[in-house]
Design a protein that fits this description.
Layout: H1 7-14, H2 19-24, H3 43-53, H4 55-70, H5 78-92, H6 96-130
Helix pairs in contact: 3-6, 4-5, 5-6
């Protein structure tokens, strides 16, 4: 049984693979890449999530994700490991469309929560604008 390797050796081993395979790997020189692809806020995360939703491509990307999570011997964040493992399994199982739908829901919830957190401050500023003696202490 082969023992786990470091991030640097992992990156060295995969450097000659095609770009499609490399897109599935979620590891950099130090550790796992931050599992921020749940928030569809950049072109890269949307692109990666759309590719993961396509059955054959999703299999490749999901396998790369799982491989890069479990093949190295670093002390990665448990939350990162769980996140990448769940989405890797969904992509390998041809359920990448479900992963994409979940990411869309999480992105909508994120922006709604940001909006809801901002509303009280907007209301306070509006109230302070209407009521001349109201002190704004934000």
């Amino acid at each position: 049984m082969e023992s786990k390797i470091s991030n640097i050796l992992f990156l060295k081993k995969i450097e000659d693979l095609p770009k499609l395979f490399k897109n599935g790997f979620v590891r950099d020189n130090d550790s796992l890449v931050e599992a921020s692809d749940w928030l569809l806020s950049s072109k890269n995360t949307v692109y990666r999530s759309l590719l993961g939703a396509i059955p054959i491509l999703g299999n490749i990307l999901g396998a790369g994700r799982i491989y890069s999570v479990w093949y190295t011997s670093n002390n990665d964040s448990i939350k990162q490991v769980i996140w990448h493992t769940i989405f890797g399994i969904l992509e390998v199982s041809c359920l990448g469309i479900l992963a994409l739908a979940l990411k869309i829901v999480l992105t909508i919830i994120h922006y709604l929560l940001l909006l809801l957190c901002e509303i009280p401050f907007i209301l306070i500023r509006f109230f302070a604008w209407i009521v001349p003696t109201y002190q704004v202490s934000v």
